[in-house]
Amino acid sequence: MALSEEEQKLLAQLEASLAAEDPKLAQTLGSRNTPRQIHGRRATLAGLVFLLGLVLLVAGMQTVWVLSVLGFVLMFTATIVALGSWRKVTDAQTATRPQAKPSSEPFMGRMEDRWRRRQEGDL
Length: 123
Fold this sequence. Notes:
Largest sheet: none
Number of strands: 0
Mean pLDDT: 81
Helix content: over 70%
Structural class: mainly alpha
Region (Disordered): 90-123
Transmembrane segments: 42-59, 65-86
Pfam families: DUF3040
Keywords: Membrane, Transmembrane, Transmembrane helix
Protein name: Protein-S-isoprenylcysteine O-methyltransferase Ste14
Order of helices and strands: HHHHH
């Protein structure tokens, strides 16, 4: 639903007053980066750190064992960060997705109905 001209003017005034009072907050709120973009970048960075850890792990096996331990720690940390970012992206997607209305019929009843329709050739 589009805003009326009066509502657009009021919104512009509110944005201008916010920018005048607290420019840092206005910049943060006006950021165009979506959570998906932010966490996507974080997951990409975690992937690169994981690869660096893998290189250190292999190189440390051939030279100094401390590099292997450092590589393993980097790989483990990158995995935790990537999984956390992936979870936040999927949570944000499910929050914006419209929820299906729950059916009053129990699950098994719906499955039996689908089976019956399939046997009759309706599905």
